[in-house]
Design a protein that fits this description.
Residues 1-111, 137-244 form the YCII-related domain. This is YCII-related domain protein. InterPro entries: Dimeric_a/b-barrel, YCII. Belongs to the YciI family. It holds the Pfam family YCII. By secondary structure, this protein is of the alpha+beta class. It has one domain (2-259): Dimeric alpha+beta barrel (Alpha-Beta Plaits, 2-Layer Sandwich), CATH 3.30.70.1060. The protein has helices at residues 16-35, 86-95, 150-169, 220-227, 246-259; strands at 2-9, 39-44, 52-57, 60-65, 74-82, 103-108, 135-144, 173-178, 186-191, 194-199, 207-217, 237-242. It has a 6-stranded antiparallel β-sheet with strand order 2-5-1-6-9-10, covered by helices on one side. Strands 4-3-12-7-11-8 form a 6-stranded antiparallel β-sheet, covered by helices on one side. Strand 3 and strand 4 form a beta hairpin. Helix 1 (16-35) packs across helix 5 (246-259). The radius of gyration is 18 Å and the shape is globular.
């Protein structure tokens, strides 16, 4: 079963050395999971100061700087894994360094109906951020539970899948998935060596994360244009966050180490 592990924490609780150590540990876990056939994707997100939120109301775009939720602990990264069950997902979440300072929310991915299929997932570009190579952005889709009545949800889902195929044809698609409802979420924290597992989503907000699109585009303006086309932005909010590839962080860590 596939799960998305959402990494929440306060950005100011990590020193740069802490971040570098966390990244090294995270990359090692990714390598281990990949060898076991359990790793699908993972990446840290750039600071919430780089976030842009997009809503579409009455056909008009509403664009604001900053993250969707004004909370102390913000989403800082994600893992997508394929494991046997929830217990195995919890074991992996508890091994992640961010679980010791923040919270790891586990959300099962929602399987698509047999009549729908997404394009094949593409690899995240590992190009440095100082080139003209298109960048990767994640579009986090938030909405209130029940925002889509059952008779409207299926057409909206089909519309989103069709958009993914259009993006794929343009070389802009990386991956996407809807998530199972927040009631299916599990939160994991590790404090002083003890693990706490709590049912339910981490952020206590009316609008909860319902899915994501990972895209590769030239700039933020293109990401905003795509976010405005997603059906979910008409009933909720699309938060756009630039992806920081592991290779970028690894390169930064190496430079900083050599400078010492």
């Amino acid at each position: 079963m596939k799960y998305m592990l959402l990494i929440y924490g306060a950005e100011d609780c990590w020193t740069e050395d802490d971040r570098n150590t966390c990244m090294i540990e995270s990359m090692a876990i990714c390598d281990e999971l990949e060898k076991e056939g359990k790793w699908i994707a993972s990446s840290p997100l750039r600071s919430v100061t780089t976030a842009t939120s997009v809503r579409v109301r009455d056909g008009k775009r509403q664009i604001t700087d900053g993250p969707f939720a004004e909370t102390t602990e913000q989403l800082g990264g994600y893992y997508i894994i394929d494991v046997n069950d929830r217990d195995e997902a919890i074991e992996i979440a508890s091994r992640l360094a961010p679980a010791k300072k923040g919270t790891v929310e586990i959300r099962p991915l929602l399987p698509l109906p047999d009549s729908l299929s997404l394009p094949e997932t593409e690899a995240i570009s590992q190009a440095p951020s100082d080139t003209e190579t298109p960048r990767n952005y994640i579009l986090l889709m938030y909405a209130e539970e029940g925002a889509w009545p059952p008779e409207e949800h299926a057409p909206a889902l089909a519309e989103s899948v069709e958009l993914c195929h259009q993006l794929h044809a343009k070389g802009q698609f990386v991956s996407a998935a809807p998530l199972q409802p927040p009631a299916e979420a599990t939160c994991v924290r590790v404090r002083n060596g003890s693990r706490a597992v709590v049912d339910g989503p981490f952020p206590e907000t009316k609008e909860q994360l319902g899915g994501y699109f990972l895209i590769r585009v030239a700039n933020l303006d293109e990401a905003i244009a795509i976010a405005a086309k997603i059906a979910g932005s008409r009933r909720g909010t699309a938060e756009i966050r630039p992806i920081e590839t592991l290779s970028e962080r690894n390169q930064t860590s190496r430079i900083q180490t050599e400078a010492k």
